[in-house]
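SECTION: protein entry
WANTED: fold as tokens:
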Amino acid sequence: MDQDIRSWFAENSEGIREISQKIFDKAETAFEERESAKIIAEYLSSYGFTTEFGIAGLPTAFRSRAGQGQPVIGFLGEYDALPGLNQGRDPYFTGDSAKNGHGCGHNLLGAGAAAAAAALHSALRRQGKEGTVVFYGCPAEEVFEGKNKMVAAGAFRELDVALSWHPFHLNFAGKAKYQVMDSIEFAFQGLSAHAAVEPHLGRSALDACELMNVGVNYLREHVPEEVRMHYCYLDAGETPNIVPEYARVLYYLRARDRNTLDDVVARVKKVAEGAALMTGTTVTGKVLCRGSETVLNERLIRHLDGLMRQIEFPEYTEEEKKFGITLAENTNLSQVKGEFSREIMPITGEVIYLSGSTDLSAVSQIVPTGFIFVTCFPKGTPLHHWACTACAGTSVGQKGMLYAAKVLAQCGYDLITRQSLLEEVKDDFYQACRK
């Protein structure tokens, strides 16, 4: 690792931990991350970054920039929490389901990415090297809208390379493709009536929603195995004695590639139309976001993998090991093991297909994008679970955060100081986009 980057982390790690804790305590959900975004922006300003809020018209999206000249290296941070996943810093459940929590570790993600940006800029400035460092604060990843809207508004295109990471229960460089995902809201309009006196005059929008969901559940047998279809009700009537004239259901639809997903979406829309026809209602479908396939950058993946193996991995104290074991015992999930992974998964040449989705894929379509997964939770811990929230607020999550920040900062430094590496990464991107 570059000595100036190493020294920066030795001197500034406590500040990174503090901002991750502050964001953990705020636990603001999608598009509500006002304080969380401000915490990161103020942190970066203390290291010489200037910030512009309101990117793509989103109040909690921002861009912080420092340095000058070429190349331009970007770090992408997220900081949105999840509803209902509140949890204390304990290895047993203490949460309040009425409150939010960082059950995906985005407090660590945002703080770690910001630290990487600050460390890289500080090293460049100390060494008198040219290069611009940009941090993009990206809201609402959990609802899949932040980066998609930012890309549509022209964000990220200034970057030569974009770098990010995600807390996980394993360690590997990102030769992993996320599912392509569309978010669609289906709204049914019917007629209200007294449910006891004159039910025959009503046309139930709720019935239509329920019939649609039944139809989609039967559809599951007839789509590729990796396809995922999930839904939740947004509006379903107010009281049982009124036939609901309006109801809404939100769908997340996922597939490995865009063509497959387009076919699934078309079929789901027909199911919705059929439900409306059966109930005498009308339906409209509103696409909230349309996902992209992940463009992998082989050269960047290999370099990140090498850095993960070179940079010292964190050691865990006996207290932290005990925390992991106790956490595993209290999850009641057999796949959760008490130990924290310290191995780097090898690059086999095969693509890892993930079941989840992210709007980071949209960025990978327009600039070379590298990302890594780093252990912040015990092996087997599922994301979007109270156990993740617990780890995200403790030293075990913060150790993974600091390790990820060092890897990303060093990668950014190498891209700026090694012209041949940057050219290879860009060439790989152009070749991948032609396929």
Q: What stands out?
A: The mean pLDDT is 97. The first helix runs from residue 3 to 26. Residues 79 and 106 are 5 Å apart (CA to CA).
